[in-house]
Amino acid sequence: MWRIFFSMMLIASANISAAQQSTLIQQVLIADGSGKPMYKGSVRIAGNRIVAVGSIKALPGENIVQGNGQILAPGFIDTHSHLYGYLDEAPEALAALNQGVTTIITGQDGESDWIDSIKAQLAKRPVAVNVATYTGQTSLREIAMGANDIYRSSTAKELSTMQQKLQQELQQGSLGLSTGLEYEGSFYSHPDEVVALAKTTAQYGGRYMSHIRSEDIHMDAAIDEILKIGQQTNIPVQISHIKIALKDKWGTAPALLRKLDSARKAGIMVTADCYPYDFWNSTIRVLFPNKDFNSLAAATYATEHLFDPAGSVMVRYAPHKNYVGKTVAEIAQLRKETAAQTLLYMVAAADSFRKANPDAGGVETIMGKSMYEKDIADFMQWPYTNMCSDGGNGGHPRGYGSFTRILHQYVTVQKVLSWELAIHKMTALAAQQTGIQQRGRIAVGYFADLVLIDPTTVKDNASIANPKALSNGIQSVWVNGVLAYQQLQHTGKFPGVFVSRL
């Protein structure tokens, strides 16, 4: 297998100045991100770039890293991350590095920081991973309409203000527009508003990523909406963390993928990302798709069709901290009522707490079990699905374990994906589907974001009980040519940069 590609990847080196210390990573299996078979070789990095790949002799005085036959891959790109908000307090970004992630993409679900703010924060407090961002529709609505007046359609003047701010962000390197249409900040926006913002995005070469308007009872209409946006704007559209969260439709992933394939054949550039867990992490309110938070019938429907109360755990609940770590079914038992009645109470109590404590921040978070394993595997195998975490710095184990879970559970154990294909979906495909340039490949001239993996030991360890447990098998991680993580530890280096679309 190695000989087939060995001749294609022979020495391709650049001149290295005497002042530039180079590193040669020897004796590795190179998974270059393309999806092609791995091959034996070495990789030289100098400064922040890859300068040689193939059969390479060491230079005098060069720093040598022995790969011992392990896999060298491009650094993983997390296309849906919520880690950025934690980097001020945790700039070492262990949640990302411990699973081989070197670039996180923030601004998801319609909420984003402005690029000037991100750049200023990175200058003030350097971080260990690269950061790219989308511009969030909800954030645009808040500046145009006021944070407390976004639960309605926008006016023409407000939409114009949003478009102007979006244009500014795109000119500064935003990847494009993100929406969180299932969440209340954007749920009430008219589809014409979304299309108008997407058209502004198209004018500047950006992309569209969406937590679609429904992942359960109205999912068919939500899929139609994102496909219509792609058709009307002719820009790539990505479905965030694709899933089927309605129990009645479990097992229908192949039918959905056929629909997406048909759309692609018709010229709509639709793609997706996904994470490898059958439970999500959000607010209790998403269990009420019609926003009827006082309806016992709606709560009953949620417990029977939208999630498993016995498998869904509260990870944050400010009104009653003793509920944290318990399932909804366990809380219902404590309260001596049905799970549906408990659901109604918890929504109401959380609302009351927010009103009494407007600066409290996150009030309630649930890890809701509502997906089907076979659907997850089918989505992973779709050629246009890349991988993501949708995670932060703890809480749901996906924040620390998504990428290593894929390598262990879906490559090594279930063999749903090959090593080469899994790495492709974490690297080059992720870069391609988000518009990131010169990352995601092991090739001369690309940025030296690299991860050395022991395929015999790689495994996620994060769990609901211990969501920050570090993964096994991620031996070393380089970010922009700097060793940032080794032997389960951050090295004390902070080489991360802002990654612009431009």
Topology:
Elements: H1 2-6, E1 22-30, E2 39-46, E3 49-54, E4 63-66, E5 71-74, E6 76-78, H2 94-97, E7 101-106, H3 115-124, E8 130-133, E9 135-136, H4 137-145, H5 156-171, E10 176-180, H6 184-187, H7 191-203, E11 207-211, H8 219-233, E12 237-239, H9 253-265, E13 270-274, E14 279-282, H10 296-306, E15 313-317, H11 328-335, H12 339-356, E16 364-369, H13 373-381, E17 385-387, H14 398-413, H15 419-426, H16 428-434, E18 450-453, E19 474-479, E20 482-486, E21 489-490
Parallel strand pairs: 1-4, 1-5, 6-7, 7-8, 9-10, 10-11, 11-12, 12-13, 13-17
Antiparallel strand pairs: 1-2, 2-3, 5-18, 14-16, 15-16, 18-19, 19-20, 20-21
Helix pairs in contact: 4-5, 5-7, 7-8, 10-12, 11-12, 14-15
Describe this protein's structure:
The protein is α/β, with parallel strands linked by helices. It folds into three domains: 2-74 and 440-490, Urease, subunit C, domain 1; 76-277 and 372-434, Metal-dependent hydrolases (TIM Barrel), CATH 3.20.20; 279-370, no CATH class. It is built from 16 helices and 21 strands. The protein has helices spanning 2-6, 94-97, 115-124, 137-145, 156-171, 184-187, 191-203, 219-233, 253-265, 296-306, 328-335, 339-356, 373-381, 398-413, 419-426, 428-434, and strands at residues 22-30, 39-46, 49-54, 63-66, 71-74, 76-78, 101-106, 130-133, 135-136, 176-180, 207-211, 237-239, 270-274, 279-282, 313-317, 364-369, 385-387, 450-453, 474-479, 482-486, 489-490. Helix 4 (137-145) packs across helix 5 (156-171), helix 5 packs parallel to helix 7 (191-203) and helix 14 runs antiparallel to helix 15 (419-426). The longest helix has 18 residues, at 339-356.
